Amino acid sequence: MIGTQPLRLERSSIHDDSCPSFQAALELIGRRWTGSILSAAAQGARRFGEYRAVIDGISDRLLAQRLRELETEGLIERTVIPSTPVQIRYDLSTEGQALLRALQPLAHWSIQRSARQGR
Question: Can you give the pTM of this predicted structure?
Answer without folding.
Answer: 0.78
